[in-house]
Each structure stands twice: as C-alpha cells, then as structure tokens.
Amino acid sequence: MDKNGHEHFDEARKLAVREYNRSISSGEIGYLPSLEGILKDTEIVAQVDLGLIEIPLKKTIGTYTHLRSLSFARNFMPLIETEFREKWSSLCEAHLHEGIRDAIKVYEYMNWFYVIEGNKRVSVLKYFDAYSISAKVTRLIPKLDENSKDSRLYYEFLKFNKITNLYSIWFSKEGSFDKLLKLFDNFNPENSYFDNKYKYFEVYIYNTFRKIYLSYGGDRLKITTGDAFLEYAKIYGMPKKANEEKLTLRMKEFLKELEVLSKDEGIDLSTELLEVSPNKMINTLTSLVIPKKKLKVAFAYARTIEGSGWTYSHELGRLHLEKVLGDQITTGYIENVPENSDAYKMLKILANAGNDIIFTTSPIYLNSTLKCALEFPQVRFFNCSEAHPYTHVSNYYGRTYEPRFLTGIIAGSMTKDNIIGYVATSPTPEVISSINAFALGAKMVNPYAKVKVAYTNEWNSRLKFTDAGSRLIKEGADIICNRTLEVSHPVSTDFGVYSMLCTIDKERGVPDKYLATPIWNWGIFYERILKNILNNTFKTIVDMFSNNPKLINFWWGIDTGVVDIFYSKELVPPETQKLVNLMKKMIMNNAYHPFTGPIYDRDGNLRINNEETASFEQILSMDWFVENVESI
C-alpha cells in the first residue's frame, strides 16, 4: 500500500534527525545554511533579476533567513513538527497526485541557491530526489576579491553562465570553465531537434555522466563532477551523445585516475638508476606477464627511423635491448604513428597483439596512450614525456637541463657578438627549464651574453627548426642552439641527433661549425626498466599496481648516462673543455646544481635565493625565464 503524506513526513523527519546528529557529531551546525549570516560582511556590488528559470535542486542548499533555517536539517528535511507536519504532508500529497507547479523564489549567490519563498516545496522535492524546480532567481554578485580563489572562480562562472545559461556545473580549478567553453565550439548534438546545445549537453550528456560517475563512488572524491567530466573529455573527447554502456565500461578504470587526482599526493620521481638483482628468475614476474614466457615489448614511433633523428635514437635503444637481453624478450615497433588522436587506433593494435609493455616515444601520444591504457589495464604503458604521470601510464624522460647548461657554457665562451640563438619547440616546463639552464651556463662564463629564443610550435619538424634558425640569424645571433644540421655528422649516426649548437656564417646565413649537443642513450633506460621487470626487483613497477596514491615519473640525468653531452674536441677551446668536464663531474656528484641561486627572472624578481637550489618539483613546473632570455 502506498504511503500517505503523513507517513512520508515521518520518514523525512527521521532523515532530518539523522543528518542533524551527523552534522553535530562532526562539529558542524546542524541546520540549513542561511544567506543572511553568509552575507553579513560581504560587499554586494550588483543584484540581477534572472527571471524564471529551472534550477538544479542539488545546488539549492539553504534558506535566506536564519529563523527559517532552524526548521530544516542540512539535507533540507524537516526538523520541527507543529503546523509543519500538515503543510509538508499536504504538499507531499499534491506532488504525488498532480506535481508541484508553483515556482519558488531564491537568491543565487556564488552559484548556490538560497530559498526566500518555497522552502517546504524544496524539502518535498529533495525528499523524492527530484532533479530541478522552477524558480524566480535574483543573483547577488559580490565584489571580486583577487586574493580569493573562490571569488575568481565565481567570476569565471559568471562568464560561462552568461553564454550557456547552465548552473549545474562547477569546477575546482581556475581556467576550467574556459576549457569547457572551448569544447563547446565544435559540439554539435546528434539530436537535430534540440536547438539549445548547452541544454542538450546538460540533460543528455553531463547528467548521464554524473549518474554513472556517482554510482561508482565519485562523490567520495575531493573533486567536482565537472572536474571529473573535463578529465574524461581530455582523454575521450567531447561525447556527441550519451552512451551509458560505454561510459559504464570505462568508468571503473577511469575512476582510478581520478582518485589519484583528487588526493593530490604528488609524484615520486625516480632520479637514480634502479638496482638490478641477478638472482631472480623470470617465473617470479608480477602480473605484467605470464610466467615463463618471453616479455613482449613494442615501441610506437612518430615518423620513420630513417627520416627522424628522434625516432632513430629510440630505435638505437630498442636494438640495444635486443643485444643485452637476448632471448628473454621479443621486441617490435611501428613507424609513422599518427601525431593526433588516431594514434589510439595504432596503440590498440599493439595491445591486442599481446604486448606486455608498450613504449610510446613522443609526448604528443600521452592522451592516446592513456586512453588505450584504460582499456587494457593488463598492459604496462610508458610515455616518453616530462608530463604528469598517471596510474595507468608511467612517464620517462631525461633531465635535459643538465647537458643544456653545459652547452650554454660553450656558447657563452665562444660567442663574439654576445647574442646567442635558441630554437625551441613550445614553452612547456621541460623546454623552459632547458632554455634557462642554457642561459645560466652562458652567463656563468659571459655576463654579457643574451639568449634569444624562437619557437617552432612543432616538436619534430626540420623545416620549422631551419626557419626559426634563420629568424635568429636576422636577430644578430652568431651562435645558435638546435640549428638544423645541413651536412652529415657522425653524431647523427651514433645518437640520432639532427640539430646542434653551431657557429653561424652570417654572410651565407648557414651553420659554419658544429660545436656541441645534448645526446640521449635510451638503451640505458630501456635496459634498466626491463631487467628489473624480468627479475621481479622493480619495486616501483610493483607499486604502480598497488594502491599507492603516488605516481612514478622516471627522470634520469647525466649521472645515469641516459643524457649526456657531445662536443667537438677540435673546435671547442681546451680551457672551455676543462670547465665543461669539471662542471659535468660536479653535477654528476651533486656538488653543483645548474639552478643554484641567486637567480632572477627577466622581470627582476628573485626566483631562487642565494645558495639555494631549485627543487625537482620547481623545475618540472617552471613557467618563467631567467633575466638574460628574450623571446622573439
């Protein structure tokens, strides 16, 4: 038999008492928040009549007056009886038989709604877990407080809301509203009968995502549903339609990434070579591979081995693996993997081919690698980038700022015009730290040296590197870092290098002498990682499969041999060679750090104090340039 209004009221009041007691035991006020108290010391700069709109009940969290707030627990369930019982029960009966139609009246403040009239209507609808209610809304806009993240976020929301008229989405990170707006640029719903794409997104896509996300325990995480959706869209793109089956299949593994994101436990950096124990056998492998079988390893290359120095350097690493590990492994590779989202299809082919470990050798593959890793959690994926690692994808790279510092010493000692050019891809933290280290090395031996930077905005284009070099020559550079090789050089065959630090023949506008370059020895990295997996002594890999919330980023330096420096013993002056060799030994022995203060940025701000050194975390997030760097 169906319950009547009074019976529903009794159930609602039990929920209220339970919530009130929970709040009190947690040290919180047990009643509804009241906007009167919240606004006591707040400067409201504008009141805006938004008219009659449909508002989400999940964002209706309080009442306007303190006195009325005492009638409800924090979950909006009724605490008092008296005349409340009859009125609440009557509204409940009306909702069950014909629905609550009358609009309520609310204030919107900081994207939350506080009821002026209609508290009992909200209470009844929340009891029945309704989604929204019609409301006459007045927006109260507080004065922008630049020192308050919440205030800055709200002003970002105001811009977003003006365009979309959506209220149900909120983010915890600044810039996220703009990111979602950008996703809407190319968003065209498949349902052509729905003329408002923003409302379509909210009703059919976002709410479907929210339902599945919360069903898997998303409400336990310290991020908003909006944060979670934006991470999902980063990997899978903006859905054009809601596919509950596909979302459900993906959510379990995806939530593991979100758990790490929400805990914000930081990253464990592996900066030293892993020790290898020769005493363990293959049949004690972790769940990475089937016992007593060869480890099957695949490499995904951008471009071709013959046409790309970067790809060639990784191919040298793969060949090194086959030489040192012999019949313990089998390796394979694919070339010309698309440098866009289509890379996922190629990586999926490798995963379906039974590979135990897949190395994707370009930063541009990170999203595709993560997407594939979420689908194949039994495969271990590594992406070659300095980016933030994930639970399902480890990152590996070299501390390139170390050899860049040494090449900067050579450039600073050999420039005649004190203008040194630097060709860079794009201003990511890894690139910025390398530029800064190079500039600091030049300044160490030449206080007058200036470093001018030209960007290619493409990570592996010889043509764009050449064009950027030409721009720097016009700027007066007599030495350029990362100038494309125009003649064959032994370092290309040995290490896959296709650009070097070189002097410039200004009359012809071409490189004159090739002086130095950082070099990669990927074989050392690949060998150490795989030996530890094969010997079951790879603790960091085991940790990745545990519940350890920290992520692993392999970031090895000159001391490991993964990165090093090549310089011409014929062209670099002997005294400069002595200094470079001395500084290299000091870096390897931790006797000197390239980022040793005092270091000022180009705006004159002290970034690293005297006799202090930058932490690894500071270097991995570097977004400023030292004082002798100029971008063109």
Key descriptive features of the protein:
632 residues, alpha/beta, Conserved hypothetical protein from pyrococcus furiosus pfu- 392566-001, ParB domain, Rossmann fold, 3 domains, seven-stranded mixed β-sheet, 40% helix
How would you describe this structure to a colleague?
The protein contains 21 helices and 21 strands. The chain folds into 3 domains: 1-143, Conserved hypothetical protein from pyrococcus furiosus pfu- 392566-001, ParB domain (Alpha-Beta Complex); 147-264, no CATH class; 401-522 and 561-631, 3-Layer(aba) Sandwich (Rossmann fold). Helix 8 (197-215) packs across helix 10 (244-263), helix 11 runs parallel beside helix 18 (522-534) and helix 14 (401-414) packs antiparallel against helix 20 (574-588). Helices cover 40% and strands 20% of the residues. It is elongated and about 95 Å long. The strands form 4 sheets. The chain has a 7-stranded parallel beta sheet with strand order 6-17-11-10-9-7-8, sandwiched between helices. It is an alpha/beta fold and 632 residues long. The N and C termini lie far apart (78 Å). The model is unreliable at 276-292 and 537-550 (pLDDT under 50). Keywords: Signal. Residues 295-588 form the ABC transporter substrate-binding protein PnrA-like domain. Pfam families: Bmp. It comes from Clostridium rhizosphaerae. InterPro entries: ABC-Purine-Binding, PnrA-like.
